[in-house]
Amino acid sequence: MTADLSQIVKAYDVRGVVPDQWDERYSALFGAAFAQVTAVPAGSGAIVVGHDMRPSSPGLSHAFARGAAEQGLDVVEIGLCSTDQLYYASGALDLPGAMFTASHNPARYNGIKLCRAGAAPVGQDTGLAEIRALVESWLDDPASAPTPVATPGTLSRRDTLADYAAYLRSLVDVSGIRPLKVVVDAGNGMGGHTVPTVLGDLPLTVVPLYFELDGTFPHHEANPLDPKNLVDLQGRVRAEGADLGLAFDGDADRCFVVDERGEPVSPSAVTALVAARELARNGGHGTVIHNLITSWSVPEVVREHGGTPARTRVGHSFIKAEMAATGAIFGGEHSAHYYFRDFWNADTGMLAALHVLAALGGQPAPFSTLVAEYDRYPASGEINSTVTDQQATTARVRAAYADHPAATTDTLDGLTITTPDWWFNLRPSNTEPLLRLNVEARDRETLERLTAEVLELVRQ
């Protein structure tokens, strides 16, 4: 029987149901393969491993560590951490790393996010395909499975939380901010572990929501991209008369913002705000990366503040590659992933949150007033449609606008059609029979008309 890991080895990570699709035996093999494919050829004698609060995470991460140690690598186990805390450890220690998390997925899932030394990503084109092939070969022929080397590596424990928090605080000046009341929804995820240390001694009254670490997610999914998971935060911000609300996903690498009225703030607006601050910190110069479905506001603000915007495909591997290629100082996505040159080009929602708090606390206006400068155009948000044939449906939509006199078309990532008054992007899901639509326009009437028009073409 041939092992098939195609259902759990994705484009950027490993993710699947435990124990149905993978377990600790598999994890040990992934650890050995990571050592052989990624760490040893790069000359690394050690790796760093961390995990989230899911019930299966400690066992899976320790099995991975044993598998790597049996191939001669020393393993630094940092225990409970957020994904960006693991990236910090990989960068600060200059070691390859493995983070055990399934981010916002339901409790029965778990996964591994892998990186090279300095938090450089490991994806399908940068080692993950080879790791998968090696593990499959060992599962197919157990006799070929790796044997421990004569001198295995050591396992050691290290707490990096305080150092991670201090490093983030060194990148944003929050010394002069005014007192603020902030509601933080950790969604029973790793924000409950990191927020008290990162924000602990700032002039903030933090109102905690769901800080108890619980990988069964008893209150709501730890996925703030879904509006229903923001409802509790919105209500609490209004009830408390708070200045701001912050919501983190399960592994706390993404941060969503709610203003003082309880209204969600577009991640594009947060991208533009942070871009302006990072450009100011870098003397009004630098490249800022944005994916192709962030708002028109982002490149506009970047240019207004002296920077150079660079457009890329959706997805962290593309953003990080472009960050490295251009030397960009910052990058942002519509999904609330924020990337910083000074954080090894990796994404950290916590650093974006510090920027937001510094911006709000450094002036007297409410956040809704402050952010209006960066939130200029109405947008649809991402709308998913199930289709039987992604290519044929996309072709039908493209044909419908082929003769539009003012439209330009590009296919960098799916189909993007742009006019002076509006744009939309239609891109396929890599894992489901879905097309994802994003629309933006100069006014709400045009937005609503165009959104309905494109959806009718998609769903007919």
Automatic annotation (TrEMBL):
Gene3D superfamilies: Alpha-D-Glucose-1,6-Bisphosphate, subunit A, domain 3, Alpha-D-phosphohexomutase, C-terminal domain
Source species, domain of life: Bacteria
Alpha-D-phosphohexomutase alpha/beta/alpha domain location: 7-137, 163-262, 272-377
InterPro entries named in the record: A-D-PHexomutase_a/b/a-I (IPR005844), A-D-PHexomutase_a/b/a-I/II/III (IPR016055), A-D-PHexomutase_a/b/a-II (IPR005845), A-D-PHexomutase_a/b/a-III (IPR005846), A-D-PHexomutase_C (IPR005843), A-D-PHexomutase_C_sf (IPR036900), Alpha-D-phosphohexomutase_SF (IPR005841)
Domain Alpha-D-phosphohexomutase C-terminal intervals: 382-456
Cofactor(s) of this protein: Mg(2+)
One Pfam assignment: PGM_PMM_IV
Keywords: Isomerase, Magnesium, Metal-binding, Phosphoprotein
UniProt record, GO biological process: carbohydrate metabolic process
NCBIfam families reported in the protein's UniProt record: PRK09542.1
Protein name: Phosphomannomutase/phosphoglucomutase
UniProt organism field: Streptomyces odorifer
Lineage of origin: Bacteria, Bacillati, Actinomycetota, Actinomycetes, Kitasatosporales
